Amino acid sequence: MAHHKDERTLVFIKPDGVQRSLVGEIIRRFERIGLKLVGVKMLVPTVKQVEDHYLLEPGWKETVGRKAIESYAKKGIEPPTKDALAAGEKVLEGLRKYLTSGPVVLMVWKGAHAVSIVRKIAGSTEPLTSDVGTIRGDFVLDSYQMSDKDNRSVRNLLHASGSVTEAEKEVALWFSNDELIKYRLVQEQ
Question: What is the pTM of this model?
């Protein structure tokens, strides 16, 4: 196992973050905490790239569908469906439309416990439940309820890998080894 200081994670700023000119602010938050940017590029994802990304984990659709249903139950709201696979497909359908609607900024961040630190700074996937001080908590006024009502994906500014294993797969999917830069920061000297 690699040392925790060498942990890498994938972050991408979604179309709403790019459109709202929050790229610099988001990068600043990760740099300020001490993470090192080792890969960055901008593109408009294809439907295939979006599907490949979210379906890297076997059972993703069912897992995300179950989480969506549970989220409704916790709030005392009737979910649009009780079928986890159907709910997951609805989430993926929204992500396909949302992420292919404009450019995203893909980044690989490296540093001690990069995956968990990035997720902490990003905030909860649902902006409504994100803490103030997180990226989503400070910049997003959206919820699963609103996005369902509008028949769209929740606008939550960014994607952040959920685990070290997931991060490794996602980095390999979006970046070749040649696109990841090895260098030292002043504090690493």
Answer: 0.90
